[in-house]
């Protein structure tokens, strides 16, 4: 394409885009949108708390500080990964935001692993049923995926230039939130098998969200022009 | 040492100007507005809240590295130009088409430079520019007028330039570069000689038909060229079918004579 032809074609596109212009409201700050999504997760947590055995949960957390740290790590991972996902969805923000949830992920995984190394069950907890890991994985996926869907729907409103990275962070946030909520209704002691199943479910949720995000926030801007 | 990005959470971004919204316009408060007023001190009109940007000035905007490069547009620096484009973007978000088109025009050289930095060929550079314009259009709501415009645009331009390489890489697996096969491919359309000859023959035929007597010309135009039946031609001309048939055959004979090569006559 010669320079003149290219310039004419750019001018035509600019004229067309100018004609299509409609007033737009500036998107709220990423942290505000992250807070909105976390509020939805919190609302769901409050709903689950109705069915949770709160005194037993308190007893477990008191008896095993590592479980408390694991829960804290999961909550922090959900919060920071959500903030990072919304930050990376906005053009001009550094992709290094993706490292924001890293310390929380380390805390979550580290504390969960320490819990598996403990010998003997936590006093006052029920013995684990054979179907328990499958139920946990099912719960994680069934909670994480709708939350991820909501998150992707919110992220699409921005213009993620790195859809895979943003969607993966969204998947991590959803999976961590689901894992944090799981503790509310988790009447069993965590075992190595538990941890592996949780990890597999978390990875599956992240991959599914990444796939979903890539489909919704893919590379072809022309198909989504306003 | 590079600061982690979240350090900027608690500090204003470099060059950021907090706009004060007044109607559809964003005023620049404090020092920045005072500087803008000084620049316009000799203007007969008071400084406009959204100063106009000429096409040339917008097209000259191409960098966000004031320490490396200064693009002087009159007395303006990159920083001032960035601020001006930020205000134009704010006006565009409010629906001002002229401001929006000025911003888009300013995006063209930035996008082209980003594509060239990524090593794209000239024809691919234009594709990247168009992708960048479409992305800017789609991402219009994500721009925060309180932040510098340059990094926002630069991130879109660089990313789309990288995406173009990825697309090129994916297409490269399916496409084969074979210039000989391209050149040797037979065109199904008639070649230039055939087309010229056909044109010449039709011109000659037209001229020969024009030289026929009126009755013969009418018959050949309706039956031969117009592809009408004898009955239809008879209705149109009001003549009998027999007379038309005779005129048609005489016309064919005359045309043969008129269009035959000189030696055959």
Could you characterize what this model shows?
The complex is a heterodimer of chains A (226) and B (265). Chain A is mostly helical and 226 residues long. Chain A has one domain. Chain A has eight helices and no strands. In chain A, helix 2 packs antiparallel against helix 4, helix 4 packs antiparallel against helix 7 and helix 6 packs across helix 7. Chain B has helices at 30-39, 55-60, 78-93, 97-117, 122-138, 149-172, 179-184, 192-210, 214-225, 230-237, 241-259; strands at residues 20-22, 25-27. Chain B is elongated. Helices cover 60% and strands 2% of the residues of chain B. Chain B is built from eleven helices and two strands. The model of chain B is unreliable at 1-76 (pLDDT under 50). In chain B, 31% of the residues are buried. Chain B has two domains: 13-167, Rna Polymerase Sigma Factor, Chain: A, CATH 1.10.1740.10; 203-264, Winged helix-like DNA-binding domain superfamily/Winged helix DNA-binding domain (Arc Repressor Mutant, subunit A), CATH 1.10.10. In chain B, a hairpin with a 2-residue loop joins strand 1 (20-22) and strand 2 (25-27). With 265 residues, chain B is mostly helical. In chain B, helix 3 crosses helix 4 (97-117), helix 4 (97-117) packs across helix 5 and helix 5 crosses helix 6 (149-172).
């Amino acid at each position: 394409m010669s320079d003149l032809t290219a310039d004419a074609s750019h001018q035509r596109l600019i004229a067309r885009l100018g004609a299509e212009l409609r007033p737009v409201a500036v998107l709220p700050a990423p942290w505000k949108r992250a807070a909105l999504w976390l509020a939805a997760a919190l609302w769901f947590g409050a709903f689950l708390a109705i069915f949770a055995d709160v005194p037993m949960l308190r007893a477990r957390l008191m008896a095993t500080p590592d479980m408390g740290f694991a829960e804290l790590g999961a909550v922090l991972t959900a919060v920071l990964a959500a903030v990072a996902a919304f930050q990376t969805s906005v053009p001009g923000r550094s992709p290094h935001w993706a490292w924001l949830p890293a310390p929380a992920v380390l805390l979550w995984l580290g504390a969960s692993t320490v819990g598996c190394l403990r010998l003997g069950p936590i006093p006052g907890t029920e013995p684990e049923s054979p179907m328990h890991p499958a139920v946990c994985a099912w719960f994680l996926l069934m909670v994480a995926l709708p939350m991820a869907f909501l998150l992707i729907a919110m992220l699409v409103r921005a213009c993620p230039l790195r859809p895979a990275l943003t969607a993966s962070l969204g998947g991590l946030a959803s999976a961590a939130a689901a894992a944090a909520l799981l503790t509310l209704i988790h009447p069993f002691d965590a075992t190595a098998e538990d941890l592996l199943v949780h990890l597999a479910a978390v990875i599956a949720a992240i991959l599914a969200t990444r796939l979903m995000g890539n489909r919704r926030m893919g590379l072809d801007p022309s198909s989504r022009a306003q | 040492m590079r600061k982690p990005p979240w350090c900027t959470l608690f500090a204003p971004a470099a060059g950021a100007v907090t706009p004060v919204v007044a109607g559809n316009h964003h005023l620049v408060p404090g020092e920045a507005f005072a500087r803008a007023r000084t620049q316009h001190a000799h203007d007969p009109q008071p400084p406009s809240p959204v100063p106009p940007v000429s096409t040339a000035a917008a097209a000259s905007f191409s960098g966000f590295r004031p320490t490396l490069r200064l693009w002087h547009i009159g007395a303006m620096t990159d920083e001032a130009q960035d601020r001006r484009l930020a205000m134009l973007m704010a006006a565009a978000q409010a629906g001002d088409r002229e401001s929006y088109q000025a911003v888009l025009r300013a995006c063209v050289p930035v996008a082209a430079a980003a594509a060239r930095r990524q090593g794209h060929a000239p024809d691919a550079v234009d594709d990247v520019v168009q992708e960048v314009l479409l992305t800017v259009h789609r991402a219009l709501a994500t721009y925060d007028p309180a932040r510098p415009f340059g990094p926002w645009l630069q991130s879109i331009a660089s990313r789309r330039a990288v995406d173009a390489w990825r697309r090129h890489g994916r297409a490269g697996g399916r496409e084969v570069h074979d210039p000989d096969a391209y050149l040797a491919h037979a065109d199904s359309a008639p070649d230039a000689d055939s087309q010229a000859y056909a044109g010449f023959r039709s011109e000659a035929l037209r001229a020969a038909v024009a030289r026929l007597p009126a009755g013969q010309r009418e018959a050949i135009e309706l039956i031969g060229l117009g592809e009408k039946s004898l009955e239809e031609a008879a209705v149109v001309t009001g003549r009998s079918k027999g007379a038309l048939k005779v005129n048609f055959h005489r016309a064919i004979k005359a045309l043969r004579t008129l269009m035959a090569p000189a030696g055959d006559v």
